[in-house]
UniProtKB/TrEMBL annotation:
InterPro entries: HINT, Histidine_triad_CS, Histidine_triad_HIT, HIT-like, HIT-like_sf. Residues 3-110 form the HIT domain. Pfam families: HIT. PROSITE patterns: HIT_1 (PS00892), HIT_2 (PS51084). It comes from the Bacteria. It comes from Faecalicoccus acidiformans. This is HIT family protein. A motif (Histidine triad motif) lies at residues 95-99.
Length: 111
């Protein structure tokens, strides 16, 4: 069973940041920085590569809205937005997700 599908179905608890009919966003359980957010399609896709275009576009639309919100609310200086594709690139959960990681001037290099 996919852990992110379980989160979408509320079988596993998460700190939900945003939800609509097709997209879900929640705080990362092991944050790189305060506010580290994951944006995912509710429908199971393995990665960016197999996510249908309309759904992929909406994931990024929500990511943009949440990144703007993070910048305002946390007053961060920047944000890393990234999606790891396959294990070799660091993907540990095989359900497409976009990371939003708040960054601050002088903080530790993470990417
Ligand atoms: P990846 O390494 O696949 O790019 O990112 C997966 C992310 O999912 C990791 O940053 C990890 O901390 C997060 N994660 C894994 N399991 C859970 C979970 O059960 N709940 C939440 N909120 N985050 C999770
Ligand atoms: Zn899934």
């Amino acid at each position: 069973m996919c852990i992110f599908c379980s989160i979408v179905n509320k079988e596993i608890p998460s700190y939900c940041i945003y939800e609509d009919d097709t997209v879900f966003a929640f705080l990362d359980i092991n944050p790189t920085a305060k506010g580290h957010t994951l944006v995912i399609p509710k429908e199971h896709c393995i990665s960016f590569l197999d996510c249908p275009a309309t759904l992929r576009n909406h994931v990024f639309e929500v990511a943009q809205m949440l990144a703007n919100r993070l910048e305002k609310q946390l007053n961060c200086d920047g944000i890393n937005m990234l999606s790891n594709i396959h294990e070799a690139a660091g993907q540990s959960v095989e359900h497409f997700h976009v990371h939003l990681i708040p960054r601050y001037k002088g903080d530790t290099e993470i990417i």
